[in-house]
């Protein structure tokens, strides 16, 4: 290969090079091509969604989506789907592959489509032309940066470019990490051969291999074939290692985890459980589930208010997100902490600027822990008074939006209004004041069925403006609606602290969190076959003192976690 052209003036990849990279990628896909066209699903069957809070039924069963019992003594799972790496999985995997201090920027890759707040839904993860261009551009950039960093290059390559056998050795080792299984000899030969054919120098050959591997469907998709040809079959050890790593760490398995899988450490349920317990104590779990909290509770991105008022700065949005991250992370990952205490916590974490926004006196710099006195409006309200959660994220009716959000986020009760109802009632509500609208929709037969579930909850937040800031001049009784939590042990509540306490006691809360975790980690809405796994996770959570990590290990401990079912 020619070594006369310096990297600084090396031209962009030619069509010949791009085609060669694409052909190498297709060779890698060929190893699993039969599964992709036949046994792996193209869409995510949601089936009937089990309502949360049903609990286990006698005889080891659980209530199914249709209301009948499900036999939990027989391991079952809903059909598998072909999952593209989400943006966060892609970033975290690349961070590990290239031994970076931080996840790489992926601004050119489109945002994952969300559903119910979550951006991990398999059925919505398409691959567009923009994705393909961005994947290649990212691979080119990472390859260029790696070759320019001698120390990191030595760690990642494991040998010196130009040394005999170095390129093939790198393709074997890096390829195994990228596609989560060993490459066959013919795959490595193809990669090396094409690299040597189109590369301009030794380092360029490594860049070519990187680009081919990182644009391979075997890297971009989480492919599971299973160990047998039956409709439902166990995952292979390496597939199980990949599912475990993506579930708990949101990234591809490390070389160590793949080696442990090949050594048989994951073969028995006890071994898998032991490895999972090690993994949930790792900081990589905290990183991945910090993103879960943001998607679950809808504070992943906040928008600046239209009329912010004096003292507002864009940095306040980041401070609000940090406040919720700190409280959730503290209750999720502090050893022995009760995760549900985040709902009734009597403290928070604010910067001086955010403290001033809330009307709190905060001294010092950075983030400070603040305890609330007993008579403070935020005393024992935990997450429910965080501006990141309750500030207006759209132009909807705040009372309805907040009540609807609380039921959906914490109880998994999605309130859907009949299509066209708002338009039908527009003329009837025209000219009414906001309190009159609230009263009318809670008394009219066409509206009361839905609004009676959400408005009495939302009105409890009426003294918090659209920015999430308390305004004591607002009187709740102006709305003519008593704050109530329908279905709670004590339905009427006089403060948000009372509401937080009732919400924490709700029997539906643990099951709902388990369902949200299932959706985030498995990339689909649960079907009836998944009900046993969700109920078992909620039960384990309660038995282990509501520790968040108990949720995660229970997901892995479920027999269904080891299975793959072919789509119908």
From TrEMBL:
<dbReference type="InterPro" id="IPR013042">
    <property type="entry name" value="DUF1592"/>
</dbReference>
<protein>
    <submittedName>
        <fullName>Uncharacterized protein</fullName>
    </submittedName>
</protein>
<dbReference type="Pfam" id="PF07637">
    <property type="entry name" value="PSD5"/>
</dbReference>
<feature type="domain" description="DUF1595">
    <location>
        <begin position="166"/>
        <end position="224"/>
    </location>
</feature>
<dbReference type="Pfam" id="PF07627">
    <property type="entry name" value="PSCyt3"/>
</dbReference>
<dbReference type="Pfam" id="PF07624">
    <property type="entry name" value="PSD2"/>
</dbReference>
<feature type="compositionally biased region" description="Gly residues">
    <location>
        <begin position="50"/>
        <end position="69"/>
    </location>
</feature>
<feature type="domain" description="DUF1592">
    <location>
        <begin position="235"/>
        <end position="360"/>
    </location>
</feature>
<dbReference type="Pfam" id="PF07626">
    <property type="entry name" value="PSD3"/>
</dbReference>
<feature type="region of interest" description="Disordered">
    <location>
        <begin position="40"/>
        <end position="71"/>
    </location>
</feature>
<feature type="domain" description="DUF1585">
    <location>
        <begin position="491"/>
        <end position="561"/>
    </location>
</feature>
<dbReference type="InterPro" id="IPR013043">
    <property type="entry name" value="DUF1595"/>
</dbReference>
<feature type="domain" description="DUF1587">
    <location>
        <begin position="83"/>
        <end position="147"/>
    </location>
</feature>
<dbReference type="InterPro" id="IPR011478">
    <property type="entry name" value="DUF1585"/>
</dbReference>
<dbReference type="InterPro" id="IPR013036">
    <property type="entry name" value="DUF1587"/>
</dbReference>
<feature type="domain" description="DUF1588">
    <location>
        <begin position="381"/>
        <end position="470"/>
    </location>
</feature>
<dbReference type="Pfam" id="PF07631">
    <property type="entry name" value="PSD4"/>
</dbReference>
<dbReference type="InterPro" id="IPR013039">
    <property type="entry name" value="DUF1588"/>
</dbReference>
